[in-house]
Amino acid sequence: xxxxxxxxIIFMFxxxxxxxxxxxxxxxxNYARYYTNGKKLYDISCQNCHGKNGEGLGQLxxxxxxxxxxxxxxxxxxxxxxxxxxxxxKVHGVTYAEQMPPNSQLADIDIAALVTYISNSFGNQQGLxxxxxxxxxxxxxxxxxx
Amino acid sequence: xxxxxxxxxxxxxxxxxxxxxxxNSDSTRLPILGNREAVTKIxxxxxxxxxxxxxxxxxxxxxxxxKVVTGKDFKGKIYVADFFFTSCPSICPVMHRNMLKLYxxxxxxxxxxxxxxxxxxxxxxPEKLKAYATKLGVEGTQWEFLRGSRDSVYTLAEKSYLVAVxxxxxxxxxxxxxxxxxxxxGKGRLRGAYDGTQEDQVSTLMDDMDIxxxxxxx
Lengths: 146, 218
Fold this sequence. Notes:
The structure holds two protein chains of two kinds. Chain A is mainly alpha-helical. In chain A, strand 1 and strand 2 form a beta hairpin. In chain A, helix 4 crosses helix 5 and helix 4 packs across helix 6. Chain A is elongated and about 75 Å long. Chain A starts with a helix and ends with a helix. By secondary structure, chain B is of the alpha+beta class. Chain B contains five helices and eleven strands; from the N terminus they run H-E-E-E-E-E-H-E-H-E-H-E-E-E-E-H. A five-stranded mixed sheet of chain B has the order 7-6-5-10-11. Chain B is globular and about 80 Å long. Chains A and B meet through helix 2 of A and helix 2 and helix 3 of B.
């Protein structure tokens, strides 16, 4: 009898654990998918300038390691990637005044993947940035860039 | 019998040793690249045939300080040459990120220079080049950023450094060019070509520069 109860407790524990774990892994799976695709796209579209480790280049190209900047601008990074920069920005206290070329060929899902990768690499930890969010953020700045 | 074996053993050791040392001395000498021709000269009534290697012809450019730079400024030094333009969105940033490592390694060494030629002679004025150099973190003129007329730079690139460069409206930034880093010795001869966009090739280049720096004048 006692033995049965023990088995039952173990069974329930495993069931609860797997339930929690599978819920978590759904989001984790999405994150992993975005992150992996983001890395691929980063290597093609961003790495030449921003570097393998997001280190940038002198005072010509800003690094992506300013975690505060990334956190503060998490909702405008999508626009920066798609439309480029033609303005002066400050990263790590250093002024950058060069142009960043636009990447208008990228779809919303690609940009979401890139933002997820960048904002969770090089010391950043902003979590998953989903495509719905990217579309909302991009719509807002499309008005400005028109 | 025992004596014989030891003699044979010593002999074998000697052969192996000389074999290895000969291999070593071969591999520590960099090849001379480019076109070459045999020229026969007559010295003291005897004729000698000598190989004449391709060298970088004389040039005259303006650097980031607005000063005239010619081949004389590079004579007797080893240098690395490449082609870029300051507004280049494609391979230049990665090339110059790698070149910066090389610059940091040989900073202050008066036997080593770097020559980056702009292929965008219209936009890249000395002021633009100076701003680019400063923002890159380059001081002084050990690393020269050189501007010349379109024809002089393009001809030098293709005929002398064997690097393809061209204007192309469809390419990002308006120009196409190869990312080679060309190693040139004190006599203006080509001694190596390395893909400046690849980190491992640039570290090979630095190893080769160390070899070339030790090379004695023949």
